[in-house]
Q: What sequence folds into this?
């Protein structure tokens, strides 16, 4: 099939480093691996282009700069119309259409529904979060009625809506009743891209570059498994935002004893506060901040960890955390909060210790147990890798997403259920192996 992948959200770069960008890349990568031809239409690209996606067909409509929140929201409404026009005009001019529109749900976008209707092809809508409530709570929303109408129109125009968790699906079904196909397909992981250390051991002195030129480096005389020849490495990968609970991890580490280090890979608005917390707790020599890594560098970073942590705080958690699946694929014992969909993914696997999200001491106990028991870390790590391979590959996820369109059954893996003037200066960029700009 020829698939038009639509992404209006200006907060997500197709070639960015945060989890949402990784998600976009993995879905596109897997669609292509399944033999489909993918063209992406978006408002942001960023610069960390994976080598295997360097030939991806990407067309970008740029959001005008210098706008306040209200103007920006109106600009997105206009860009949605422009994007739909661009796709349909391109199809008319080239005579080469699309067989499917696949849109990642974005506030103010009706582009996917419009393209689907004009080309008379199905639309699959991917919903990762209840964005209306999330935007109101965390960022602010001026034109809420416009956003709600666009959401309703997009959902009504979709032949299939795939949600990353049951909580997200419940939101869709409750607020937009009567939709034909609202299913749950959790996130996944590329088990070929993310792999464990060979024999769960690496030679010492490995370096992983970060944007600042710093490295994650292991000083382990004599080489061998990290837990044998150096401190136990506790790792976190993710955007540094309040709902990821990185502050809980740092607080928990203040109560640990023994030879350990903490590697925090990611950046975000909490960076300064977290660095201050480390200094206040006297953990300067224990905790290192490495900034964000390009997705291509993350697998190597994960191989330097001995323990991986998803320390989410208490509260409603509708995520299907990519980091948890990546930790499993890397063959790492996982310590995670018992919130949202996480227990359904990890409980009973033997790969994780689930902790009380309201009790930092419980997190400390779990980490200390793994620091003190290298054999347990090895056993849990092996089970983690097996779980990723058996139940959570992106190939299985994308086959299930596309099953109603392709006519294939699609395996059901564990945890999966069926279930305006402002825009006048907008420019269009087309990503090609030799990039060109259309003005």
A:
């Amino acid at each position: 099939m020829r698939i038009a992948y639509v992404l209006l959200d200006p907060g997500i770069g197709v070639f960015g480093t945060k989890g949402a960008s990784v998600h976009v890349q993995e879905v596109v990568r897997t669609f292509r691996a399944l033999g489909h031809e993918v063209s992406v239409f978006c408002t942001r690209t960023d610069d960390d282009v994976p080598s295997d996606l360097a030939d991806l067909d990407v067309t970008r409509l740029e959001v005008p700069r210098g706008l306040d929140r209200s103007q920006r929201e109106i600009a997105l409404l206009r860009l949605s119309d422009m994007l739909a026009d661009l796709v349909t005009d391109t199809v008319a001019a080239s005579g080469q259409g699309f067989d499917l529109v696949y849109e990642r749900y974005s506030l103010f976008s009706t582009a996917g529904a419009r393209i689907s209707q004009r080309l008379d092809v199905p639309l699959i809508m991917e919903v990762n979060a209840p964005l209306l409530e999330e935007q109101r709570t965390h960022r602010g929303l001026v034109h809420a009625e416009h956003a709600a109408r666009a959401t309703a129109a997009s959902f009504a125009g979709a032949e299939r809506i795939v949600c990353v968790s049951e909580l997200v699906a419940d939101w869709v079904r409750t607020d937009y009743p009567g939709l034909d196909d609202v299913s749950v397909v959790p996130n996944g992981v590329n088990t070929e891209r993310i792999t464990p250390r060979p024999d769960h051991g690496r030679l010492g002195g490995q370096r992983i570059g970060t944007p600042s030129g710093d490295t994650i480096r292991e000083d382990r005389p004599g080489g061998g498994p990290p837990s044998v020849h150096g401190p136990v490495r506790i790792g976190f990968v993710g955007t540094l935002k309040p709902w990821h609970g990185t502050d809980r991890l740092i607080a928990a580490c203040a109560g640990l004893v023994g030879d350990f280090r903490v590697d925090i890979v990611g950046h975000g608005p909490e960076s300064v506060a977290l660095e201050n917390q480390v200094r206040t707790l006297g953990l300067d020599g224990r905790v290192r901040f490495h900034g964000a890594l390009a997705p291509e560098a993350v697998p190597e970073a994960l191989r330097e960890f001995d323990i991986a942590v998803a320390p989410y705080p208490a509260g409603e958690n509708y995520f299907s955390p990519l980091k948890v699946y990546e930790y499993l694929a890397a063959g790492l014992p996982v310590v995670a909060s018992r919130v949202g969909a996480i227990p359904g993914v990890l409980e009973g696997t033997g790969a994780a210790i689930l902790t009380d999200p309201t009790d930092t001491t419980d997190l400390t106990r779990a980490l200390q147990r793994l620091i003190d028991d290298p054999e347990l870390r090895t056993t849990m790590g092996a089970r983690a890798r097996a779980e990723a391979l058996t139940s959570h590959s992106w190939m299985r996820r994308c086959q299930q997403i596309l099953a109603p369109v392709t006519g294939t059954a699609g395996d059901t893996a564990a945890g999966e259920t069926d279930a305006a003037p402002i825009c006048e200066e907008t420019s269009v960029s087309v990503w090609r192996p030799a990039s060109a700009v259309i003005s």
Confidence is low (pLDDT under 50) at residues 201-215, 217-227, 412-425, 432-439. Residues 69-94 form the longest helix (26 residues).
